[in-house]
Design goal:
mainly beta; 6-stranded antiparallel β-sheet; 4-stranded antiparallel β-sheet
Length: about 180
């Protein structure tokens, strides 16, 4: 082979390696207003350590930060948000309420020390999302509550490295 050909082969081999190791784009789930459940039998003791939120151009987003494997979850619109254990009503303003139950999941360590660093009870003024509440950390389940302006379509998906659960609420469309 000529030296230039060896160089070309090396470049093509490098490009081939880059193309095969690049992460594939992940399709987002469809928008829905019905209950969504996902189980993960391989999750052992994931820790819910934070929550952040932001308004985007077409949706409001909540990101739940998790250490460890992805927990399972159950999310749906509910009549009323209540605190786990006491059953007391959660005082959040908003027309519609949504609850997410993460399982197995913990927001404390083995000695009972709190690990969750996020809003406990917060009114927000985003386009769709109105309130966020940390409603429980009990018997291997962490629960969070949200209020919205209306029963907005939502989507939920997970991300890794670091582990996160993402919930988007669609903004109303203008005609």
């Amino acid at each position: 082979m000529l030296p230039i050909t060896r160089g070309l082969v090396a470049i093509l081999a490098s490009l081939s390696l880059i193309a095969t190791t690049s992460p594939a784009a992940v399709a987002l789930p469809d928008w829905t207003t019905t209950k969504t459940v996902r189980e993960n039998d391989r999750a052992r003791a994931p820790k819910v350590v934070g929550l952040r939120y932001a308004e985007h151009k077409r949706f409001d987003r909540v990101v739940v930060d998790v250490k460890g494997r992805q927990p399972g979850f159950r999310i749906s619109y509910v009549k009323e948000l209540t605190y786990e254990g006491s059953g007391d009503a959660v005082p959040l303003k908003g027309r519609r309420s949504m609850a997410i139950n993460l399982f197995p999941a913990y927001a404390h360590n083995r000695t009972g020390e709190n690990l969750y660093d996020g809003p406990r009870l917060e009114q927000v003024k985003l386009r769709t999302l109105r309130g966020i509440a940390f409603t429980g950390d009990f018997e291997g389940q962490v629960t969070l509550g949200f209020t919205t302006r209306r029963k907005a379509p939502y989507r939920i998906f997970t991300l890794t490295n670091p582990t996160r659960i993402v919930i988007d609420w669609k903004h109303p469309t203008r005609h």
